[in-house]
Amino acid sequence: MTSGVLTTSFPRWPNDFAGCFVEDDVRARAARGASLEVIAAGPAGTSAGPPVTSTARTTSARPDLLPHIRVTRLQLPSGAQRGGPAPLFFGQGAPEALEASGAAGWVQAALFWAALCHEVRARAPRWSDIVAHWLVPSALAARVAAPWLPLTAYAHSGDVALLERLPGGASVARLLARETRELVFASADLHRRFARLCGFAAGSVGAAARQDPRRAARNHRRAVTGDAQSRHLNLLSVGRLVPIKGFDILLRALARLGAGREHAAGVGGRNTFRLVILGDGPERTRLQDTARRLDVDLVMPGTVGRDEVARWMSTADLYVQPSRRLKNGRTEGLPVATLEALSAGLPAIVSRTGGLAELAESQGVTLFESEDVTGLAFQLARFS
């Protein structure tokens, strides 16, 4: 028999960083002998017709995957040529796209969910079980379209925040809690929030949803001394360029640290930071303008492949994840890039928010209070 895998994000090409943790899970299941059919979101179409009216179904070309892993993508027209909403699952990501697109974005989301339900109904007779990444829309589609199949569902962050805000979100949470064989949360914070939402504890924080940051796969262990001639420390951060990632906080902290060094000129000659942010999104121009205004040395290579992320990590001295809690209550789950940096042996400074707050300092992590620019600058100064 075959397992169905439902997800909004699955790597579109080899080494695509977006959704890489879903691919890792799929590959691990395949290595144990499972056959899998993955149904994922595809990039937006370019139809010149009315925006957001239908879905198209395409088979993904991923020859690098094992033969018993098949990927089908559900493609929604974005309506970009007619002033429609941006595609939900690429670029800035679904939570930000829904915030920005208004009613049209929610229509697009409803159409994707309906298409997902249709695919599940058609394929369920040959499936033995379903694995869903993200509670909404994936796990909900599994329960509505094939309620008899065993379901393993993974909650990553934005899905729990969406249920907290949706009318009827508590009812959906209770349905999923009662009708899901295994419910796995990326962090204890998400687990607690989901329990508050549905009124009782359900599921667990499981190893399948997160990597162990103590696993030193590449064992970086590089001394934080900087280049002998340039006296730069290479500072790295990875993520979509959206407000929740808090990159503006990091820029302001580096600027504050630089101002403090004016008084230390000639006294020990501290290192300075060169900041590299890997990723793209709607905040790119604003972050570049802020860096120029604050005189921060910022490099933004854009979106790069997973192997390229690993290469940047191998040359970095320090990793920073300055994520914030948004006004709507949404926080990070536990970003994969942070875990991979720790696995590479990089020291990391992360904000005390969401799942990041659960990373113990004994694992090579230094915590600072979310949005505390002075506190982050203080922790950065310790490495300079």
Offer a quick outline of the entry:
By secondary structure, this protein is an alpha/beta fold.
What is Rg? 22 Å
Query: What structural class is derived from the secondary structure elements?
Result: alpha/beta
By DSSP (H or I, 4+ residues per run), the number of helices equals 12
- Total DSSP E strands: 14
Report mean pLDDT, rounded to a whole number. Answer: 83
Strand content: 15-25%
Low-confidence stretches: 44-54, 79-85, 208-229, 262-269
Q: Major β-sheet, in short? A: 8 strands, mixed
Give the strand order, joined by hyphens, for the main sheet.
3-4-2-1-5-6-7-8
Terminal residue distance:
56 Å
Helix/strand order, N-terminal first: EHEEEHHEHEHHEHEEHEHEHEHEEH
Helix content: 25-40%
> Judging from the principal axes of the Cα atoms, what is the shape?
globular
Tell me what you see in this structure.
- The chain has 384 residues and is of the alpha/beta class.
- The chain has twelve helices and 14 strands.
- The strands form two sheets. Strands 3-4-2-1-5-6-7-8 form an eight-stranded mixed β-sheet, with helices on both faces. Strands 11-10-9-12-13-14 form a six-stranded parallel β-sheet, with helices on both faces.
- β9, α8 and β10 form a beta-alpha-beta unit.
Keywords:
single chain; 12 helices; 14 strands
Question: What's the helix and strand layout?
Answer:
Layout: E1 2-6, H1 20-31, E2 35-41, E3 56-59, E4 69-75, H2 94-101, H3 103-123, E5 127-133, H4 135-145, E6 151-155, H5 158-165, H6 169-179, E7 182-185, H7 188-198, E8 204-205, E9 232-238, H8 247-261, E10 272-278, H9 284-294, E11 298-302, H10 306-315, E12 318-321, H11 336-343, E13 348-351, E14 365-368, H12 373-382
Parallel strand pairs: 1-2, 1-5, 2-4, 5-6, 6-7, 7-8, 9-10, 9-12, 10-11, 12-13, 13-14
Antiparallel strand pairs: 3-4
Helix pairs in contact: 2-3, 3-4, 5-6, 8-9, 8-12
